[in-house]
Amino acid sequence: MDTIVIGGGQSGLAATRALLDAGLSPVLLGAAPRATGSWPHYYDSLTLFSPARYSSLPGMPFPGDPDRHPRRDEVVDYLSRYATDLLQRGADIRTSTRVDAVQTGGRGFAVHAADGTTFTAPGVIAASGSFASPHLPELPGREDFPGKILHAADYTAPTSYAGERIIVVGAGNSAVQIAHELAEVATVTLATREPIRFVAQRPLGRDLHFWLAVTGFDRFPARLVRDPPAVPVLDAGAYRRALRERRMDRRPMFTRFEHDQVIWQDGAREHADVVIFATGYRPDLRYLEKLGALDAGGHPRHAGGLSTTHPGLAYLGLEWQRTPSSNTLRGVGRDARSLARKLRAHCLARRAPVDG
User: Fold this and answer.
1) Most buried pick, 35, 91, 255, 322, via CB within 10 A?
2) Is the entire prediction scored with pTM above 0.90?
3) In the chain, what percentage of residues exceed pLDDT 90?
């Protein structure tokens, strides 16, 4: 094998396809039983923010009405079929193979799996995403709160929360989507540090992603953006209407927990049964900690996805890795092709002395 791909989700699959197209022999190592990444574990009602026509990996259009917004299970099915297609192309995909550590080795890298197997290759692509590393902010009193505290990664459906007082922390698409559906069965507040930034789903009669594509914004070089903006909430009108009608409300972020209450910024105290943090994720790259490829915060040292510490090491699926769409279904394929071209030169150079 020339390259080891760590991660069996959309990024790992896109990387494997790009490496095969570049004439390399990759092996994909995925921790889950299926090469569908974290998608089966997202909340039941999750709906893509992009239409099907803008939600495909290279070489396989998303099926069905191209203007609809696919649901979670449709994405799972799509990725499963994508993996099957790669297998038919001769890809080596190893599921239920969790990577524990990566070291430098004789051929470049030694990748150690939890079952004791070691894989070696001159190239490695870390494409393990971030779902396994949810971010929970520190707040005074959190550990003594008797109610339920969970991350959006642990939320599945609203049915078990009927009649409860719920606070959803976050101003992104997932936070608003979760709060909106919970508001049908519970009393819900969105707690955010800044006002929620809404963007129309269909400006001028076309889906926003049409405009992102035709204007070139989806491909805008991330290196030219010093401080990437937060992704706004796409809304066809339902979310803002729910806030106007007070079916859910939005307040500035509370300052601390106190027993079974939260303390709001104005000093008001309020009982809460459940607090759901939709506060994002961090790259799940614990297997690289001993390699010295990460900074003090656990983030990869890289330029456009190529490691700046270890030649032959690359990353895929990071937010704003190369463009605003780098960690999306519609954008990860472009990054994968770029990395495959560069890794091909590296791998062939490492292979040449052996072949010659």
Assistant:
1) 35
2) yes
3) 90
